[in-house]
Amino acid sequence: MSSLSKTAKEGRVRDFSSITGASSADANRFLKASAWRLEAAIDAYYNQASAASAANPAVLRNLEALWAQYRDPASPEEIGMDGTTRYCEDLGVSLEDVVFLALAEFTGAPSMGKFAKQTWIRAWQGVGCDTLERQKRHIADLRAQLSNPDAFRRIYIFAFDYAKEPGQKSLHFEIAQELWKLLVPLDPASTTFSSVNLAAWIDFLAFKGGRAVSKDTWNLFLDFARSIDPDFGNYDEEGDGMAFSH
Question: Where is the DCUN1 domain (predicted)?
C-alpha cells in the first residue's frame, strides 16, 4: 500500500494528466497500477498507446509519408538541418524554444539539428500522432512536461549528448553557457537560482579558463542550481565536485 498522502496523490494525478493529456480517471488507474510512481505510470500509459498504434498499419503509412517530406535526399534514414528547419516551421516550433529540446529527446534525435528515422517513427507511432496536427497537440504535452522537475531533469541531461560534437566527451563552454541560459531559468525546481546567479556562475567558469564542460559537471550543475543559496553561501568549490575537463 502506498504511504503517499491524499494531497500527494492528487498532485500526481494532476501531473500525470498535465503531461499525458489523460483524464483524471485514467490517471488514477495507471498511477494505482504503478504504486503511484509517476514515471512508471506514464511509461505504462504510453506503452499501451504504442501497442494500439502498432496494431494500426495506417499510422505507420502516414508517418512514413510524413517522414518523406523532410528526409535528407542524400541520407533518407535521417532528417538533416534543412529538413529539421522546415519540419519545425510546420510544427510551429522555434529551434530556439526549449520545447525543441523536449521534442528532440522525445524522438531520440542523435545530434543537434538531426532526426533519425527509426526513433522518430517509433516515438510518434507510440503516441498515435501520425499527422502534423496531432504532433502539434503532442508538442503542447511536451511543453507541459517541462513543469515537472523529473521530466525537466531528463531533458536537461539529454541536452549534453545532443549538443556536444560527435566523438567528443565534453561540451564546448560556449555551447554549455547558451544551454544553461536557455534551460536553467525554466527549471521548476531551481526556484532560488536567479539570472544574476547564473551570470555569476558563467563568469566564474570563464575566470577559471572557460574549459570544456564534462558530463559529470553538466549533470551536477542542475543539482547545484536546485540546492545552492542565492548568495552562493553554501558553495564548496572542492566538496561540490564541479569538475572541468580540458
Answer: 58-246
Neighbours of 16 (CB within 10 A): 26
CATH topology of domain 57-145: Recoverin; domain 1 (1.10.238)
Cell numbers at 119, concatenated: 526513433
d(CA 6, CA 229): 31
DSSP β-bridge partners for residue 75: 72
- In tens, the pLDDT along 47-100 reads 766 565 555 778 999 999 999 999 999 999 999 999 999 999 999 999 999 999
Give the class (CATH, top level) of 149-227.
Answer: mainly alpha
- Taking the alpha carbons at both ends of the chain, their separation in whole angstroms is 50
Q: Which amino acid is at 219?
A: N
User: 79: alpha, beta or left, given left = phi > 0 and alpha = psi -120 to 50?
Assistant: beta
The pTM assigned to this predicted structure is 0.76
Report the sign of the C-alpha dihedral through residues 239, 192, 223, 178, in that order.
negative
Where in 32-119 does DSSP place strands (E)?
78-79, 115-116
CATH number for region 7-54: 1.10.8
203 SS3 class: helix
Residue 153 amino acid letter: R
**165 DSSP 8-state letter:** P
